[in-house]
Amino acid sequence: MASTTLSETLLTIPDNLSISQFMLDCQHPLRPQRGDTPCFTDNDSGQIVSFDEVKLRTQLLAAALTTRYNLSDNDVVLICSPNHVDYAVATWSVHQIGGIVTPANPGMTPEELCYQLQITKASFIIVHSAAVITAQTAARKCNFPPTRIILLDDCEHYDLNSVPELISEALANQYSFSPKLLKPGEGSTKLALLMLSSGTTGKPKVKRLCPCVPMMTDAKS
């Protein structure tokens, strides 16, 4: 029987880029120039955010987080929110700083969220208003500083700074910021995400992901 050998060109995954740099700054001959192409759309308000706007908002939020809250390299930030147009902005701004994101299910109980804060050693929380009561309750349970909590969305019912406010503040005050640059090979070793397992066989375990893992997934898709 005749045999056929299939040759496959292996993908080259950059090992010196953060997830933010890969998604927002990396150029490739086959990658289209997005510019004002709609990137995210708010299902409720109809707000459309273009690729250029996402990139700018990410940079401004990173500048505000470093200036106002002294977030820095390897700080862990918990993001607790349903789908939202600024979810990626919040995530990528942390990665631009060199920080680590641990995403949390907004349907968690305060006890579950407290456990995630403790096991990941998170030092900052970005939370959607729909889950802010849970986040504040969890913070009290584990003595988490309330001043280290901000809202992902604008909501006048809570006396907390919000991502849109911080972005506007950074733009108005021209906060300076230099993104964290990775050394060659660091993209396959530096932590980017701390993901919790389902916990079906006990307490959830933490999965540690470096930037190269989601890059490979994105490139193959």
TrEMBL record:
GO molecular function: CoA-ligase activity
Domain AMP-dependent synthetase/ligase residues, every copy: 33-205
Pfam families hit by this protein: AMP-binding
InterPro entries reported in the protein's UniProt record: AMP-binding_CS, AMP-dep_synth/lig_dom, ANL_N_sf
Name of protein: AMP-dependent synthetase/ligase domain-containing protein
